[in-house]
Recover the amino acids of this structure.
C-alpha cells in the first residue's frame, strides 16, 4: 500500500522466468546448483520446493530492503519464525489467524481454493478443519514469538489493523532480548 515505506524481499527460485519477469524484480532466478549451495551455506531464512522448483527468501534480500531504509515485509512459514528473531533482523512478528470456524465458513462460502490437484474448487469441511488445526498448533507452538495477533475476520478491518500494528512497531519502543543490544563477551 505504501512502497515508500514497505517492500518485500525478492525471493530466489530455480524455475525459469516467465516472459514478463526480470531477474532481481520478481525473483532472483538461479540454477539448482547455486540454490543448493546457498542453502548449504545457510544463506536463506527459509526455502522449500513447490512443483519441482526451489523457492527461498535469502538473508541478503532482506538486508537489501532494510539497508534501503524501508520496512521489509515477508510472509514466512511457521518453521522460520525463530530464524528471523535475531539481533540483525529484529523481526516484528504479526500472526494473522483465521476467525472461529463458523465465521470462516461464512466468509469463505463463495470462495474457491487452489491446490496442486484442482485449479479451483470450493472449500470443503475438511479444509476448514485443517485450517483450524493448523492455527491451533501454530499458536500452541509459537505464540511466544508473536508480537501482535490479528484475527482475519473481515478483510478491510484486518488490513487496517495490520497497518496500525506496523506503525506501532515502527513508532513505539519494543522489548527485545538483552543479547540484541549488549555485545556478547567471549571467554
Amino acid at each position: 500500500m505504501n512502497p515508500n515505506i514497505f517492500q518485500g524481499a525478492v525471493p530466489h527460485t530455480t524455475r525459469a522466468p516467465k516472459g514478463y519477469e526480470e531477474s532481481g524484480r520478481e525473483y532472483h532466478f538461479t540454477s539448482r546448483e547455486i540454490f543448493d549451495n546457498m542453502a548449504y551455506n545457510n544463506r536463506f531464512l527459509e526455502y522449500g520446493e513447490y512443483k519441482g522448483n526451489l523457492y527461498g527468501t535469502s538473508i541478503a534480500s532482506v538486508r537489501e530492503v532494510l539497508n534501503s531504509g524501508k520496512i521489509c515485509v515477508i510472509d514466512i512459514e511457521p518453521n522460520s519464525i525463530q530464524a528471523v528473531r535475531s539481533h540483525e533482523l529484529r523481526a516484528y512478528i504479526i500472526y494473522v489467524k483465521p476467525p472461529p470456524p463458523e465465521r470462516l465458513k461464512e466468509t469463505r462460502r463463495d470462495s474457491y481454493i487452489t491446490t496442486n490437484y484442482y485449479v479451483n474448487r470450493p472449500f470443503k469441511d475438511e479444509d476448514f478443519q485443517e485450517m483450524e488445526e493448523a492455527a491451533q498448533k501454530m499458536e500452541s507452538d509459537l505464540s511466544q514469538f508473536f508480537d501482535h495477533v490479528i484475527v482475519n475476520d473481515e478483510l478491510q478491518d484486518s488490513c487496517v489493523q495490520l497497518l496500525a500494528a506496523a506503525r506501532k512497531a515502527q513508532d513505539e519502543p519494543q522489548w527485545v532480548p538483552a543479547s540484541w543490544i549488549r555485545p556478547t563477551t567471549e571467554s
